[in-house]
């Protein structure tokens, strides 16, 4: 039986929220989806019947291997669609999420396999997130938040996490695009805003922004501890 649109939205939420032990709470799902707890409980009981999760009252859900694969395949459709819109239809990376939200619920496997073929089997979407393969497998990445870096670090901006169009516009206006080299110049002790240097220019980013930017560290320096590095 084909999954419903609602089921696919829940699966995608599980994909984004599950921790390293394949666990997620009902409360986390409720907040993420803006759905009341009783409705989430009812859906998770259905997921348990399908062997997508292990459900026990008052305990975190455990996402099974079958559930993880189902969730990854929904995400695959979404991320392939975003890549197709950017690479083949010249959409900006800030304009593709809503369209992909609609197309990800198409059930034709052939449709998305053809899209994958036309794109020459991309490993990442326009926002730097890995695209699961046809079996639901996903590339592991050793990345960290820009907000967790230190003064003097030189990093490569690799991806963004769960970002809305407003944030992507914010990055585009500042020419902060994927694969840009970023050097950490200063970290404010008061609000943890970060002064960065990109293409020879300096920019101040808020903690809210740097929490959403994932980077790969290229070089690290360890300056003496000072008031801006506490």
Please sum up the structure shown.
The protein has eight helices and nine strands. It has 230 residues and is an alpha+beta fold.
- Which strand order does the major sheet show? 4-9-5-6-7-8
- Look at the structure and give the mean pLDDT: 92
Largest sheet: 6 strands, antiparallel
Shape designation: globular
Number of contiguous helices: 8
Please bin the fraction of helical residues. Answer: 25-40%
C-alpha Rg, in Å? 20 Å
β content, as a range? 15-25%
Give the uncertain stretches in residue-range form. Answer: 222-230
Span between N and C termini? 55 Å
Number of DSSP E strands: 9
Question: How would you describe what is shown here?
Answer:
With 230 residues, this protein is an alpha+beta fold. The longest helix is centred in the first third of the chain and has 23 residues. The protein is globular, with a radius of gyration of 20 Å.
Q: How are the secondary structure elements laid out?
A:
Blueprint: H1 5-17, E1 23-24, H2 26-33, H3 37-49, E2 53-54, E3 61-63, H4 65-87, H5 97-103, H6 109-118, E4 144-145, E5 154-160, H7 165-173, E6 181-187, E7 194-198, E8 201-205, H8 207-210, E9 213-219
Q: Notable features of this structure?
A:
9 strands; 230 residues; 8 helices; 6-stranded antiparallel β-sheet; single chain; globular; 38% helix; 17% strand; alpha+beta
């Amino acid at each position: 039986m084909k999954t419903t649109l609602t089921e696919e939205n829940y699966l995608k939420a599980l994909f984004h929220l599950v921790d390293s032990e394949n666990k997620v709470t009902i409360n986390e799902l409720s907040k993420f989806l803006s759905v009341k707890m009783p409705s989430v409980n009812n859906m998770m009981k259905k997921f348990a019947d399908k062997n997508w999760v292990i459900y026990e009252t008052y305990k975190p859900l455990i996402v099974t291997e079958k559930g993880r694969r189902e969730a990854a395949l929904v995400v695959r459709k979404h991320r392939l669609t975003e890549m197709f819109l950017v690479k083949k239809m010249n959409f900006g990376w800030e304009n593709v999420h809503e369209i992909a939200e609609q197309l990800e619920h198409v059930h034709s496997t052939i449709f998305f396999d053809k899209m994958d073929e036309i794109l020459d089997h991309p490993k990442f979407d326009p926002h730097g997130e890995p695209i699961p393969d046809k079996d639901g497998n996903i590339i592991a990445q050793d990345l960290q938040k820009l907000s967790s870096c230190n003064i003097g670090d030189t990093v490569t901006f690799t991806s963004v996490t769960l970002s809305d169009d407003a944030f992507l516009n914010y990055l585009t206006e500042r020419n902060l695009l994927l694969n840009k080299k970023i050097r950490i110049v200063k970290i404010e002790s008061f609000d943890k805003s970060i002064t960065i240097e990109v293409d020879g220019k300096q920019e101040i980013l808020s903690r809210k922004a740097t929490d959403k930017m994932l980077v790969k560290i290229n070089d690290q320096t360890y300056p003496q501890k000072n008031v801006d590095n506490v």
